[in-house]
Fold each of these.
Amino acid sequence: MSVVLEARGLTRVLPGPQPTTLVSDVDASFEAGSFTAITGPSGSGKSSLLYLLGLLDPPTRGDVLIEGVSTRPLDNEARGRIRLKHFGFVFQFHFLLRELSVLDNVTLPMRQLGRLSTAATRARAFDLLSSLDMAAEARKAPEELSGGQRQRVAIARALANDPRFVLADEPTGALDTKNGAAVFAIFRRLADESRTVIVVTHDEGLARLTQRAIHIVDGRVAT
Amino acid sequence: MTPLPLSIAFAHLRARKRQTAVSIGGVMLGVAIFIGIGGMMNGFHSYFLSQLVETNPHIVITDEIREAAPQPLALLHPDGAVEVRRVLPRDPVRGITGAAAILDALNAMDGVAAAPSLVGQIILRHAGRDYQITGIGVDAPREVRVTDIVHDMVEGSFDALASNPNGVLIGRQLAEKMGVALGDSVVAATTTGAQANLKIVGVFHTGIDAEDQYWGILPLARQQSMQGKPRVVNEIHIRLAEIARSIPFAQAIERRWGFKSAPWEESYARVLDVFALQDKIMFFTTAAILVVAGFGIFNVISTIIMEKSRDIAIMRSIGMPSADVLAIFVIEGMVVGVIGMILGWLAGWGLGALLHMVPAPTGNASDRLPVKLTSELFATASVIALLSAVGAAWLPARKAARADPLSIIRGAA
């Protein structure tokens, strides 16, 4: 398998009177279809590393390479365009838009990208919801769903533009064990579909379900 | 497909119906008041000006000369250091010289009517009291072609002047003050010592105090004899078919004959200045209402942005450009502004109609407050409303567009 995402000497320092180092000199590479967990104690910098890998945060030093191409020269808007096309994010809190229906929430990235027609956008959103057993809830408002269902809608939204990378930050943090395991099973399936899946979790049991775990301590790779 | 920022903007507004309605109401109120009050001001100005302009001649030539004639020394050395001080213009005490020729020339022009007049002070005596008025001697058949005062007659008639050499027309307020009525006789005197008995053959009401209290209109020949100025004319009244030509036409007359020729705009410059001042006060007062309405929009958009910071973060994280985030909230402000503006048009039109039903204090029971709604009023109100709405939305929207999504996502975790 080829390396599709790579961190080289990735460092993030929050400026201020007393600068805080979130991530320090991290090197890591991720292959297509890999399923990786980033683990570590609370405040160790695992989420910060995920945001750097997902181009949500610019590194202070170092670089993120996508298929060997540096992203360092890109400005905010260009990084946004890459996120829209190639990355799908799932956060601990679902962050669904309350005013929109489940279906409209899932169509959001597709409409932003504007690649598909209205009918094709809706059809794909239905397909994604069906694949996550959520088609019956398509017309509902997010408030009418349980926590596990909302997270599945958030996963459907993350997959809307058929991203090559799925990045999840504590996606099971607000779920019970059963729902957490179900969400991890979905990520496992996504990796089997050749997507590169990186999940931040502090749950060692769930981390064992991945192919590889990167342990972060004080912003550095420990294992 | 509806553009995404538009869909999200509408979704936000739908979710806050009450706040949105209050903001729309604010803009509507501002626009309605701007249009309604502006319409009333316009109507009042139009009414007042039409009263002034239609009652009076469009141009008045008087026996004054504005500028002194060029001095021979200055003419002889136009480039020399010549300065002749305290040169006064010629003072033609005997009125407008060659008035008959000027009148003939003016009346021969297309769309121009001219009539002679002699204006001078008169004292009317009645019941032991004196009333100083401005006596206006007119040639009645020709005067009716240059003023509309004939339509302001409430008793008697303007034509009676032509058949009654000792007739006089006075304003209703003066008649009431003197306690005289149609058919009564009054004694008239001038500073030359001349006296005559004048019979009131008509009473007019123009609605303008200065005319209704202090004007007496009498036959030209009678005024000339009382003022001791036989065959003298000190004013020529002109009416134009096209009132818009008054300024250039007056200038042309002055250039040709040298006498001061004042268009109505010059005669009523102070009135026009007051109107302009009133317009400015009205504009700023009512525009202030729209700006206050803008604060309402600012409040709503700011609240939505505060509540929606996580939504903004997630939209930015999936790659929505900051310009689209800005567009969402500016569209929200614009939607409030546009709906408020359209409702404001209707409410303003209704307010104008209501005001037009209120009786006007003109002394005539059938008169209503004059209201004139113009397209300029609607356009101005709309521009201010939209600028206010977009401006109010722009400030918080810009902040939202610049927000760092990560700090919000981190904060939520």
Note: The radius of gyration of chain A is 17 Å.
Amino acid sequence: MEWFLANWELVARLSLDHLRISLIPIVVGFLLSVPIGWFAQRFPATRGLVLGGVGVLYTIPSLALFMLLPPVLGISVLSEANVIIALTIYAVAIMVRTVADAFASIEPHTLRSATAMGYAEWGRFFSVELPLAGPVLLAGLRVVAVSTVSLVTVGVLVGIQSLGYLFTDGFQRKIVPEVFTGVVMTFLIALIVDALLVLIGRLVLPWSHLAKKPVEAGA
Amino acid sequence: MDLLWEALTWLFSPEQYQGEGSIPQRVAEHLLYTAGATAIAAVVAVPIGYFIGHTGRGGTWVVGITGAARALPSFGLILLLVLMLGVSERVTASLVALVLLGIPPLMAGAYSGMQQIPRATIDAARAQGMTEWQIIWTVEIPLSLPLLLGGLRGAVLQIVATATLVAYVGLGGLGYDIIQGIPLRRFDQTVGTALVIVVVALVLDGLLSALTTWVTPRGVQQGRLTDVRARDSISRAAPVATTAASPEKKTTQQRKATL
């Protein structure tokens, strides 16, 4: 606690950096996964290929991805873009499967009724499919958010400042409270982002409390 | 792209394959950490998961722990444990961190594997006069294997990825050449090692996936942990286009019949 009080400004600054680096992959990952997952579900022939592809991406350890992206994309290893793009890839890898499942879980009768009532494909997507898939999408997004916040810390190994800095700095200077603060703050930020998502879910999807049940997305 | 070429040159130059710190040695260390941590995690997690799944008590616990574990930064956990146990105990400390990471997915796999078995199947086994142990060994465990292995796959994936980070506390493994190479800007070395890590991770995942298919009892759909919910949704989703649907529909009915 003493260490925290003496260094709270550093902790606050790193927490903000951490939050900023986490939010981009969460949001962009979500926006990318919805069309990809929907596509995989709508055209079953592509389902295996798409889900297999994201499965492979998810299998790549983060430290390896941080090394492999720069030569492929022509960016610097030590750039923030490297970490943000890598985390976006993980977000997509986790989320696409959930999105495909979410759209698959809609009763086909409901979809046929919507078509019979005169919905065109796009209209049906936005006013019927998306709202019905919402609770499962939210559950998947919560998993993505929490694991992104925790993965950002590894970025410190390629020089990206986040709460992970407290890990390496505290370790090298042998200050246990510093490392401890880093772990606790990362955990707290994950909890806060998760709570925010639940709140947004309540506001955007007031008709469903399905989202209460957390989804088991493979670790 | 030049860098990729340099990385391949580094990767295939003979000096990486001999002496202290060679690639085969790093791969062996990495696999050793992974196997050790996974085995200990399984010994701890599987009985607990099975107990909870069999008795049906404490399921919310498992779900809560699995969710919370995801928020725990594994890198920080390793460094914290090493500092707390002392640098001389860094092997134990790192192993503890890796075990802690492996426990939640394995426990969730064991738990949900048992929990998804229809009550009717277990009641039928009991009605045939099976003892409680017979039910566990011959009905529940075989039927739970696909999901348990899904959990194992998740655990191994986590542990392989995190084992790259233990090099930071002075251990070996495949992370060593990356973590040591970044400050030296030896990017041929870091990228080359990253390629090895990817291959190791993919091969392990592929082997476990094949194992899952192999142990799955006939008629039970194989799946990762993720598929607990997916299966349910697939069976409800007879796709709108009836022409494309026929093969999937058939498997759905088979699944329904067997589950």
Note: Chain A touches chain B through 65 residues (CB under 8 Å).
Amino acid sequence: MTDMTATTAGVAAASPGRSLVRLLEAAGPLLALILLMLIGTVTSDSFLGAENLSNVFTRSAIIGIIAVGATFVITAGGLDLSVGSLSALVAGMTIMFMNSAAATLGDGWLLVIAGIAFSLAIGAFAGFINGFMIVKGRVEAFIVTLGAMGIFRSVITWLADGGSISLDFSLRDTARPIYYGQVFGIAVPIIVLAVIAVVGELTLRRMRFGRHVAAIGSNRHVAFYSAIPVSRVRILTYVIQGLCVAIATVIYVPRLGAATPSTGLMWELEAIAAVIIGGTALSGGFGRIWGTIVGVLILGFISNILNLTGFISPYLNGAFQGAIIIIAVLLQRDRSQG
Amino acid sequence: MLNKLKSLIAAGAVAVAGLASPALAADAVIGVSIPAATHGWTGGLNYHTKRTIDRMKEAFPNIDFVLATSSSATQQVNDIEDLMARNINALVVLPFESDPLTEPVKAAKAKGVFIATVDRGLAEEGIEDLYVGGDNPQYGKAAAEYFKKKFPDGGKIVVMRGIPTAIDNIRIEAFNEALKGTKIEVLDMQYANWNPDKGFEVMQDYLQRFPQIDGVWAGDDDAALGAIEAIKQADRKNVTVLGGSGMNKVIKLVQDGHDMVDADIFYPPTLIIPAIELVTMKFATQAPINGRYVLGSPLITKDNAAEYYFPDAPY
Amino acid sequence: MSLLSFREVAKTYGVVPVLKGIDLAIEPGEVLALVGENGAGKSTLMRIAAGLADASAGTMLLDGAAAPATLQAAERAGIVMVHQEFCLAPHLTVAENVFLGREITRGLFTDRKAMETKARGLLAELGSAAPVRARLRDLPVSDWQMIELAKAFARQPKLILMDEPTAVLSATEAGNLFARIRAFRESGGSVIFTSHRLDEVKAIADRVAVLRDGQIVRVEATSDISEDEMAEAMVGRPLAEIYPPRRGMAKRKVLLSVAGLAAPGSVDDVSLDIREGEVLGISGLVGSGRTELFEALLGLRPAKCRSFVLRGEERKLPEAREAWALKLAYLTEDRKGKGLLLGKSLDQNVALTKGAITGSSWIDRRAERRDLETAVERYDIRTGRLDVTAGALSGGNQQKVLIAKTLGVEPDLIVFDEPTRGVDIGAKQQIYEIIAQLAAAGKAIVVISSEMQEIVGLSDRVLVMRRGRIAGELSGEAISENDIIRFAMGLEETSPQEEAPH
């Protein structure tokens, strides 16, 4: 019976009407973004200014880099709720490291590089622990990362005595350019985001690893029966997420020069929302990095437009955001077949 | 989610603390229920609470303390019930929100527990025996007066609101009230949730939107720090920034002289200290204590900054 | 008057005509079989009868009046469909599933006891002992089919529509089903069923209608038509021998030899040899451990063994990836759940295993496309376009894609698990041809199958399993259905160790 309907479905797929629908599907997030930008242009004079756009892109880079990592995790069928708390932890510990290492390494670029290396190490390690518990420990990803979320946040709150952890003033100036600097007129965070997005997209689409990630998310059994190293790949996606968190944190810290108790709050939800808006299926099997980037920008522009215009009561900001997210997702078809 | 886990840890801490009580029977058990350290101010609150409890324990070993921190009003209701189950003699509570906490505190009072409320009152009058609070209306007024003095001939200011709560409403109301009839123009009020990252973003967008901004009231010092960075990045001059709450970092800026910040409003988390001390005294020394103590929220300027500066505290 | 009749019924999906001018009538108390290749229109006709689809033209009459056009109306009128792809709820119990949607109530509450008693009765009539309180997901797939059937009978139908009802049943269970169908027919009920198993059609149906390209090409009483004639009518051309000719019994080299293989819960102390150029058939009742044995052998489930000798060298039992790298391949019986990524493209599917073992880090899309084109040619994979998803193909073509994928790594041993389940006669023949060619080229082939004919037709040597152990071994001319069944049922016990030469 299914054979019959399967063939007709296959035949139906050939007709030109369907490929147009498919194209619209794929372009969904992009259309939503363009629509949003139109709304912004119409409602505010300052929206399309170079400075405003640069501000929003730069601010979005932090969530954006985290969301690229999340795209890998979700495409493989997993989930990581701990990214926000991990950012806080990495930020706090890196600042503490740099403050204490300044004595031996000086306060120049060598210290900054050491700080970056330290961040990456912590991020990768935390990602590995998450991945190991989920894959080898066979505990649900939701549960493990929920627990990790609480643990990471508690540890940094304890290390900070409930307060903020700040970079020593002398170090702030050295680190400042990471967020505020520009290369050829483009803010550094935007460049970093672009590079990571390109690398991510190529890996997910064109490299063996990316294919394995999608296969595992699509049907883990099939992947196992097809000689794919399922456990190894799944753990790696969490390590990648951890590394992305670390990179995002490295960019975040120089902005305020401190890690505060509100650092990373809700970042996991924003990152996951961006991934979903962008078209990656929450159930796994299909990932779209460029879609994630579009999703991040959509979220960034929403709050930007709300700030730039006065006509929506600030009480309703949350409702506006929620509505846009739901609309963006409705514009896409259900990809859980993938 | 995070909150649930934190409460779990908090509840666990309470349980462990209970298990670890000394064998000798205490003369009194004092329960303390405060919000968890979700942002700078509450971080400081927790810090000072723990230090005060430790100090009191040392000074009066025959008094027991049980501390519960909660991250939501509903969680706090549960915590108070748990504290009641431990037969506390007194309750020092900083209510998350006045309305939902009124019934449980009233129930505790009915069972003979001595009630001390801190920073916020309850929905009904007369339940608490002791109130130690900040003056939220004065907070808003002080901010308004500051800008009135700064810009006697009028000026354009933007405002950042805090976490949507009763406190924020009271402050903003008082602020708006005090500005009535002046030539100060409030360009917009958006929520920055007393959060430095949000303060940064909102300030960036304000700067895009309004070519002229004379002053910023960021709501509190956390958001002010974010606003300062944004203004620095945009290279805008002659913008005055006012925060609030007396964070040591900002007070230092005031002390040392800063081109944007020259004042702060005192509203520290240290107000928990006298509350705990007074309640401890009542049970340790049998001295009757009750009443309302409203600590003022004066403006901190360079002249008096040294008084309010605590470099070692986390807030 | 006929119970159900089709008059000039036609159906088109979009621009594609799937049924053209069907005239067919079923009498009360009759069992009618629908046979045809995949794509011939059998399932569509069934769906129209069940009320799941509308005819694009023509009329359907039930007892002389217009037939019901929706599923609910059809069920109320006494037409019940038993689905091939199970419409059951895994988390509910057997009894709850049998009465799904038609729960027996006592006042406001469901009467659990009554449902359980009735369900037990219905299942007993089908010869099934499935425990009525057990949750569906804890039971094997053959039980599910029985429960699906019990569900149909619970609705006291006049006409039952069944799609491939014996696909997952063992011989005994199929026998029980046929007995029940006969009883149903005696009481005046009618059955229309589709099947690829022409021997079953001969056994149970009164009449058979052969569909080809959306039209009925022959309708006969089953006593008047042979299986070969049925197959020829389906395909439209004379059939050569379905099974490739048997080759001689040359002395063949042992590729792989395992002793004391055990997997907890399913395989118990199995020792066997697999030889190059030989087709080794594995038979046994459903649940005897055939699939589990070879999954255990090739690292797909936890297992241990006393010894594992591959190409003359002793080594430990390989893990899944290792097995592939050692050129040992397993082709799963579950092509939709474990074999192919239904949502992904064909070239990706074909390249998946090869890429995982020997592929470079960078994907060469053009090479994959070329490989797909070669595979389509070599295995006659019928698909209109090359860029469709695997889920869009028919069962037979999906199976060929799976074969192409498995052979992509050029293995020396290939285990085919139920290679022709749900596959039409034309594709079946092609798959047998492929197997024969591989054996002739010196590969070691293992075929696990529940179709006795297939085992007898293909194998040089047969191992029969029973309860996780090898119950018997037959070679060459000695292979017969009878002996296989006797071993499978435990009616003849021969110690396999004495038979297998080492």
Note: Chains B and C do not touch (no CB pair under 8 Å).
